Amino acid sequence: MRSRVLFVMLSLLTAAITGAIVVAQETPGAGRTSFSPVVITEAFDAIKARMSAAKPAIMARQRALLEERYDLSNRPADGVTMFRGKAVQGGVRAKLPAGASWDRLAAMTPDEIRSRDLFPKGFLPLSHPNHAEGGMVFPQFQIDEIKKQTRRDLTRFDLDFDIPDHFLPEFPPPMFLTTRPDLGDVSKGQLVTVDNFFQLFNGVLNPKDLEGMRLLVTPFPQQQFNATDDRRSARPHDGVTCFDCHANGHTNATTHLVGDIRPQELRRRIDTPSLRGVNIQRLFGSQRALKTIEDFTEFEQRAAYFDGDHVIAAKKGVNPLERGSQVHFMAEVQNLLDFPPAPKLGIDGKLDPAKATASEMRGQAIFFGKANCDSCHPAPYYTDNTMHNMKVHRFYKPQDVNGRFTAEEGPIKTFPLRGIKESPPYLHDGRLLTLEDTVEFFNLVTATKLTAEEKKDLVAFLRAL
Description:
Largest sheet: 2 strands, antiparallel
Number of domains: 3
Distance between the termini: 74 Å
Radius of gyration: 24 Å
Number of strands: 8
Strand order of the largest sheet: 1-2
Low-confidence stretches: 1-29
Order of helices and strands: HHEEHHHHHHEEHHHHEEEEHH
Strand content: 5-15%
């Protein structure tokens, strides 16, 4: 007893002198906590075996959810492609409840839709492939190319990406610079990595931006990809890069969960936003608490990489970037990332009547008129750089879906619509697979009551941006 008291006293004295914090293992049923467990008591081989064995059932459950909500078939829109030629998927893919139609839903009040449980399931918040676990999950094409170029393996032994490839951005995406529009796609059809960035950008970027690019493609430890036993990669891992999610400064639709919400079931799925045009944006981070791209860059590697938990970040290998040079260099490169060319737009960001089709012109009139889209998405970049609460919870009852509890979501950022056809799926969590889905969603949520022809024209306009 005496020795135990002495040990506790010495421990407290050591903590007082060094500032150390002793984290006790939580007792099951002890209540909620904001912190991740720091001390892992299960052997890594046992964790890997257990979670690998559970993977097929987890992915089958997520696949069943997607098939219940959406038409997942590969049906490209006629004559519409992304910059490098990938087909753009067409049609409304969210499935209607039995006996419902889009016109009938649009004629109903939110209370009626909610009470009769008629809100399309494809319009509900989308859960992570395994919401209770969370973390970065990469599309297979990104995993394959990174492994080919750099020999890093972004495969998770517990999860795969869930949305089919034909609904995702083209890969590798083109990359455009505000400083060198004459070069067009500066990536030259390659995925920019630490293996080829110098060859691609030496003589195009200045030395500090070249260093910023190097840092954007250099791996640093992250929650699921690190060298500890608390990881989701088979082997100890160097980590991930900024451009592993923001491929070529754009997006590959890698998914994750926001780091700034607790408890776990209320955390939102993230569809990786494009970095194109961040120079004209003023709000960053999932709750838009960050006001500069420098803040965002530093926050990502200090906190967001580790689910917003700086305690576990210290264990796994946080990367404390130097603000005056490294953060500045990385931010400056991101501010050079441009939107894709839009040859039908004039200098005011609106359609040139000499180049646009009749349908696109009608869609533009609807966008700035009846649909009132420009109240949040004004030209020329089609964002108001603020946040809006769409109050989608008016249409559905709170419910648990695969570990994701759907309740009030609060305000979300107004993303730029320039180049929007290049960035599927849509909304902050990727729940809307096509632009047609997006138009139907906002037509219902904002009670715009567009006709079928008006919706078609509006989609045509959006594809021209």
